[in-house]
Amino acid sequence: MTRPLGRTAGVLLLAPPVCVAVLVLAGAVMGVAHGWLEMRVPWAVAAQLPTWSALTALLGTALALVVTRAARRTVRVRALPTALGVVLPVAATVTATLALLAARGESQVWETVPGLLLWLALLTAALWAAGALARKGRVRLAWSAGLLGALVAADAAVILAVVTSIPATAPVADGLPPDAVDRISAPLWLFTCWTDSSFGLPRPTGWERFLITDRVLVEPMFHLACTPYALAYAIAAARPAPAPVPGPEPVPAPA
Q1: CA 80 and chain centroid, separation
Q2: Distance between CA 114 and CA 120 in Å, rounded?
Q3: Are 170 and 176 spatial neighbours (Cβ–Cβ below 8 Å)?
Q4: pTM of the full predicted structure?
Q5: pLDDT, tens digit, for every residue of 87-105?
Q6: 192 phi and psi, to 5 degrees?
Q7: Contact in structure between 224 and 194 (CB atoms under 8 Å)
Q8: What is residue 170's three-state secondary structure?
């Protein structure tokens, strides 16, 4: 039992810092790519956020594949303890990262706390549901429910962050667009943060996209980095253990 317990602790404690590393690495690669493209193509700026999102999703999926293999040899518990075991180390990593940024003089870093708390709470519920379904052998439904729940969690967290920091209306000054974001486009804000696009819709406008991504930039990418591994672990750890293969029946000794 000691060995599976140590492996479980190792996977759950190491995966969140790796997600932070994934975020930083993807951002660094995006920066290099933007520096190379900006003197060559006109769409270099527009490609920044989609590039960062794609790299984060790719590296996050690679981490999920590693975690899936490890999760099959970890301690098996019920769905809720598994969900909490995934989320609590993520919360600890977020707290340590925010404290580090605050110590470096990032004065507004603690304003992200309400959105992150909402994300963690809703992600726990999504992982709980996915794990419960996987335990019953309904793995495809577990993935569908887990992905939908994780998407809702990230979207709600971004909406809360924008609503609490950017007003819905503001006065127009000097003919410039008001520093406000219309709430009608709220369901799209998460995808706007990932793609810097309004998908052909009138809202959010270009100025609203700038305000949203200026206020909420790193958190959606962190959600994207963590979600694949969190779901992979919750589902893989909850799947029923394979039935033992029956061995050959003993041959009776000759009389």
Answers
A1: 19
A2: 10
A3: no
A4: 0.87
A5: 999 999 999 988 888 887 7
A6: -65, -40
A7: yes
A8: coil
